[in-house]
Amino acid sequence: MPARPMVMGTFTQERTVARHLADHDGIITRREALALGLSTSAVDRRVRAKLWHQLGSGMYLATTHPLTEAARLRAATKIAGGAADSLSAAWWHGLADDLPDVVTVTVPPGRKPRTRGAIRFEVTRRRLPAEDVDLLRGVAVTRAPFSILEAATAAGGPLMDRALQTGAVTLTTLEKALARNAGRPGLAEARRLVAVAAGDAESEAERHFARLLRLHRIGGWVQQMPFGIHRLDFAFPVQLLAVEIDGWAFHRTPDRAAADAQKQNRLTIAGWRPLRFTWHQLDSAPEDVIDQVVAALSV
């Protein structure tokens, strides 16, 4: 007589489901629940008893778990049937501070998301190279290099700089991702930022600052003025104002940071007022930079 299949005990089954919910931010699909051994009627009973809240077609959040940012992104990718991309993916990688209000997801052409519910998301239908998609903590996302390239249009250089600083991406991985996606729309800003990061951003920032000073007809400054063993990027000797220009943070070494701190301390002791601006500030908010310089010169 053939052996009867073993039936999972209720306690063991509940523990398995609870573990899944804990590992998936409280999110579970009907298909996952059935795979864990629950019956269709058992799933429906949980919904009727308000133990599980329906977020979309066949998508649930256990009421013992809050709808966190992680749960929101996890649910969006499952409902859409694709991979989180751009700023949404950058957030999942830990490279962006905030998850967008509307999660963005890449889905294959022709894929129709399940019925939408409480989760807001937008889909882009396209095919991505396999090298640019990954499964991270159980969620399909675009890999860090491509995520940062796409997010650069919305978040600008600081996000790319941060990713380079942390080692989550390198110039090489960014350049390879650009090459794989050559011709794809929406990456023009990313190409510009990668080119700047790969070049001498600090020198370019200094040239940009000099152009701004001339454009606003601000005079009385000296570039690369000697100051003891140091040189000041820009000095206004009459007002004892020094302006230091930084490139991208990922280029800065601990030795360079220590030398800059020493220079700033010596300037302060000598009665100078130091200002410091980054390439990102000059690139994204040049008028604010000039306003600060004018205010300092007016004191």
UniProtKB/TrEMBL annotation:
> Which Pfam families does UniProt cross-reference here?
AbiEi_1, AbiEi_4, DUF559
Q: Which residues cross the membrane?
A: none
SUPFAM superfamilies (UniProt xref): Restriction endonuclease-like
Q: Where is the AbiEi antitoxin C-terminal domain?
A: 77-137
AbiEi antitoxin N-terminal domain: residues covered: 17-61
The DUF559 domain covers: 201-297
Q: Which domain of life is it from?
A: Bacteria
Name used for this protein in its record: Type IV toxin-antitoxin system AbiEi family antitoxin domain-containing protein
| Species this chain originates from | Tsukamurella soli
